Each structure stands twice: as structure tokens, then as C-alpha cells.
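Friendly challenge for the regulars: who can give me the C-alpha cells for this chain first? No prize, just bragging rights.
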Amino acid sequence: MKKLSVLVIVVMLVVMPLSSCSSYKANEVVYVYNWGEYIDSSVNDMFEEETGIKVIYDEYDNNESMYATLKNGAAKYDVIFPSDYMISRLIEEDMVEPLNFDNIPNYQYIMDNFKGLEYDPENKYSVPYTWGIIGLLYNKEYVTETPTSWSALWDERYSGKTLMYNNSRDAIGLTLIKNNEDVNTTDTAVLDTAAEEVKTLKKNLQAFVSDEIFNLMESGSAYMTPAYGGDVITMMEENSDLGYVIPQEGTNLFVDAMCVVKGSENKEAAEKYINFLCREDIAALNREETCYSTPQQQVYEGLDEETKNELIAYPTDDILEKSQVYTNLPQETLDYYSSLWTNIKNS
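First reply, four minutes later:
Bragging rights claimed.
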């Protein structure tokens, strides 16, 4: 089935007319900073061939490291792919540019329910790229009782074989969800309790991870981990012993979107790149490669019913109702998170 859908995409690419290169300046460049494992490997080459704009492409492993890179000015990027709560922070700190949607006509194909969201209520700074929820991924060969709660990560039977994301927002946030707390709480006592539980969890962990999760779970080296929806599907395709649950306490619902960095020297090229990724054939390629849920209407309508009914990719309303969205926190709380995370990592 996967090979068939790839063939269909290839046919679409063959028949779709190429964009003219004549409207672009010679030697034009766009610097792109994206999550790892988050794009089809052919897409940047196709963009270069069609537009004449060179793509310089780097990867990061979490929102916080991306933010730190931008904040310290160590590198200049044009297009970034932050998550919802980070977009709010970047807007508030004047770190992203308002978009010229004349250069992004394919924005019309983004589903209406992904527009006007809290992180960018006026749709001025971002274009949705993917969305999803976090599931609890486990190896059925070693975890013989289907877990139902995030608390399974603390089960000493799997000590040394569990993983947790290597960022404070997910590690503390999922612990807050386990405790039936608000993921956006500013209550330091509640955060202290969650942080102490993460410190306890650390004793059971094999590692805090980012993209290492793929090899560790696919190889059977680790038995259980939180995992973003698209990554869950990718890893289950590689290892048939893997299963997943959406824990009873609920989970995190996220949207990752494309933004242009403040002061970009290649803003028009960056917007052309964003537009390219919103085009039906390109968005379909990226959905096929990453397995993440698509906000692109044409691509979603073209999915088979089996894919549309996959709960980790397209969760039902009852799952969404129990899902919490991370929002930007006051600076005082962000600083408190940083101190808690430093304490956790050094404990």
C-alpha cells in the first residue's frame, strides 16, 4: 500500500508543470532550520531545481535548542518549524516576521480548523506544517501487559529500558498530564512535584532522547517511550513488535508550523519555500515520508480510509477533548522551568 501511494505521488510530480526560475535572483539562497526526520529527502532538491533557489538545510532536536540558537545569534536562518507554544513566544519576543501571503498562495489549502489558533490568532506569522498527538509506544515482546497510563514509564519492571524526551516541556508536561494537572500551570508547587517525579523517573531511564528514539525502539534496545504520532507510525512500520496506546489521562496535542525569522535577508525566497511545502504533491510526499498528520486539505482528502481511521494520526473527538495544548508561559515560569530542568539533569 505504501509503495502504491508513492507511485501516485511520482505520477503527480511528472505531470505537474515546473515553476519558472526567471523570477528569482541568481545565486539566491534560503536557510532552513527544521526538526530531524521531518521532510522527504527529495523535497529540497526539487525546490532548487524548480526555482533556482539554493537550500541550506540544518536540523535541531527540540524547540528549546532552536530558540537558543536563534536567541544567541550563532547562526542566521530564514525558515524555522516551531511548535505552537514556541511560536507564541517568538511572536511575543519579536523574533519572527509577519508573512506576505501573496507569496504563499497555497495557504488557501490549509484546513480552516488550523487557522486562527491561540498561538497565532490573526494568522500573521505562521503556516501549519504538521500536527499530532503524543502516544505511549511500547514493545509487546517485553511489555506483555498493555499499559493504560503514563505511570507505566515509572514501572520498575522496565528499569533501564524506558526513554523520555530530552526537553523540559515534554518531560514535565507529560508528568503533569499523568497527575491530571494543567500542562500550562504556573503554580510552582505543582511544578516542583512534577519535577521531583521526573527525577525519580530518571533513575529508571535508559536515556533522555531526541531522534535517538528511532534506533532504540526499532532495535528493541528500549521497551517504552512517549513518541510523537508520526514517529510512532514510522517505528511501528520498522518493528512489528511495537504497539502504542493513548493513555487514559490524555495527552499533548501539538501543531508545528513554518515561520520566517526576524531580519531574514531572504524573506521572499523563504515565503516561496513555505508555499512550496504547502503544494499538494510536496505536502503529500512529506506526509508519506514522515507519517505526521497533515493540515493540507487536498492531501487529507486523498488519504485512504485506513489511514484516516488511524487513531494516532487522526484521533477521534473524544481523544482530542482529553488532549492538552502547550501554550507560551510567563517569563518567570519559563525561568523556573529552566532551573527545574537543570536540577533534573544534574541530579
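Residues 1-24 have pLDDT under 50 and may be disordered. The domain at 2-131+255-308 is CATH 3.40.190.10 (D-Maltodextrin-Binding Protein; domain 2). Your move, everyone else.
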